């Protein structure tokens, strides 16, 4: 089957233009997704490149060879910056100019300028480097665990592998001096980007949608003031983890906290001071627990922490440190130094005895025993 090179270039230009317009439309609806706009720019520059390539013989060679291929490298560089933006990193545009500069300098060398095979080899090497940088940015620099990161990173990685093959083939096979008569190698070199661009657009949008859903899900489960789990999210996650304890045999310790005399604090210093106390306490708790533990704000001034793999002794130690930290560091607000304390109830279960409702009830009884005992205390529930 013969693949017509000009037709493939036209198809690639049209697909790139459609992708650019589609991405801009998505960005208009989600202005915070700056990476989508940068990827749209990459597609638009790619479309310009294809138009210049298909005009070979109509426009001067410095446009259809020099500028056209430079635009291709700029498009890949823009895609790399889009990935940086997706990862929350600042765009860096000066590296994008390195490959076009090398390309334009290379064209001043007769051995490259007068040989289609050598031009293909050079452009393939430059494109391979940028594609690998793009794949690395997508895969290695993300701080989340999005399912679609892997498939998305595989697209530029696969493109890089193809470019290595194309460079070797160009230097070892007989290649025509006319790009439009270059045979299967030239045609495949255009067909492959069509497939990669289509895959990148689809998978990139799936990746963006996946992260958006995660952000919305997180927003629905996080307390806006403290950044901890809200009541519903904590209860659901803690209940599921306690039920799993019946099978894995881990010890689970629940700490229930209640800030002492919180209403009086609000009445005396104002609700903004109360919010400052809640945030200060939340920061202390987050410092004292591990990443595998669950911490939530389960009421107005009530908090809970589920410590995984934690026995009674360590649970009591953690509770005491949190209590002491909060009592020993007055809350600073509006020029006031506000002393505040917290009461804590502690309960530990393990194995087949693990039951979430019983765990909550026992820790709650211990908490109120601490309140009745004079506040600013840690009480252990009877096991």
Automatic annotation (TrEMBL):
Residues spanning the membrane: 6-29, 36-55, 61-81, 93-113, 119-140, 152-173, 185-208
PROSITE patterns, per the entry: GGDEF (PS50887)
Organism: Kaistia terrae
Classification lineage: Bacteria, Pseudomonadati, Pseudomonadota, Alphaproteobacteria, Hyphomicrobiales
Taxonomy, superkingdom: Bacteria
UniProt keyword annotation of Transcription present: no
Xref: Pfam families: GGDEF
SUPFAM superfamilies (UniProt xref): Nucleotide cyclase
EC numbers for this chain: 2.7.7.65
Record protein name field: diguanylate cyclase
Residue ranges of domain GGDEF in the record: 250-383
Keyword list, A-Z: Membrane, Transmembrane, Transmembrane helix
NCBIfam families in alphabetical order: GGDEF
Catalytic activity: 2 GTP = 3',3'-c-di-GMP + 2 diphosphate
Broadest EC class assigned to this enzyme: transferase
